[in-house]
Design goal:
Strand content: 15-25%
Largest sheet: 5 strands, antiparallel
Order of helices and strands: EEEEHHHHHEEHEEEE
CATH architecture of the largest domain: Roll
Number of domains: 2
Structural class: alpha+beta
Helix content: 25-40%
CATH class of the largest domain: Alpha Beta
Radius of gyration: 20 Å
Number of helices: 6
Number of strands: 10
CATH superfamily of the largest domain: ApbE-like domains
């Protein structure tokens, strides 16, 4: 339910290349490939797992996406972030919201404010979010900017979000997919899975290697200068 890619004019992203169907690991027995793919967070995901036996983790993977959506999707009216954007100052956010809030605060500080999840009011005004698109000029943009600034919000120890102005609108879409793959990786790590490749909307995390080919995981970077179709700029080998 989270969509941020259309806010960018051109995206440089990674995508998963094809992997072999079946083979045998040379170092520790036979590996079976399990794949999980579908739609989530307003984009697509693909997860490849190599393990001594076939695994079906659909329910657990769906659960991770469901919790993230309920916490941070601006497109679900009953999500925690939507309620906060609507002015709810009583709701107590969950751990995932806390994690993303604190990480966003850190990145906001380290980038001198260039990364700012309170930019949601402008995202909506330009027609890239769930809110109403406005006819903008420099004066209107300046007026909306008074509701932008991560230094104008805080999270209490109890987990309540305090905003200096009720019109401040959160949008974590720029960080949510990356956070999602971290949570998915944690899920697989807890199951002692040593070799996997996770992709969510172009975000990538890899662990181990492609045991079926006894090589590192291979991903490609699209050429951002190609306006039609697709061409690889280069490929990368990923291990851990």
């Amino acid at each position: 339910m989270m969509v941020f890619s259309k806010f960018r004019i051109k995206v440089l992203y990674l995508f998963l290349l094809g992997t072999v169907i079946a083979s045998c690991g040379l170092d520790s027995g036979t590996y079976v490939k399990s794949t999980h793919f579908g739609g989530a967070l307003g984009t697509s995901y693909s997860i490849t797992i190599l393990y001594p036996e076939e695994l079906n983790l659909e329910m657990e993977i769906d659960s991770v996406f469901r919790v993230i959506n309920h916490s941070m999707s601006t497109y679900l009216p009953d999500s925690d972030i939507s309620k906060i954007n609507q002015g709810d100052s009583i709701i107590v956010v969950d751990k995932m919201f806390r994690d993303v809030f604190e990480l966003s605060k850190e990145v906001y500080s380290n980038t001198n404010g260039y990364f700012d999840p309170t930019v949601g009011a402008l995202v909506n005004a330009w027609g890239f979010g769930p809110g109403k698109q406005l006819a903008l000029d420099s004066t209107k943009v300046d007026s909306i900017l008074q509701f932008v600034g991560f230094d104008k919000v805080r999270l209490t120890e109890e987990g309540r979000v305090i905003k200096n102005d009720s019109r401040i609108f959160f949008d974590f879409n720029a960080i949510a997919k990356g956070y999602a793959i971290d949570r998915l990786a944690e899920l697989l790590d807890q199951k002692d899975i040593e070799n996997y490749l996770i992709e969510v909307g172009g975000e990538i995390i890899a662990k181990g290697e492609n045991k079926l080919k006894q090589k590192s995981w291979i991903v490609g970077i699209d050429d951002p200068q190609i306006e039609e179709g697709r061409r690889l700029k280069l490929t990368l080998q990923l291990r851990d």
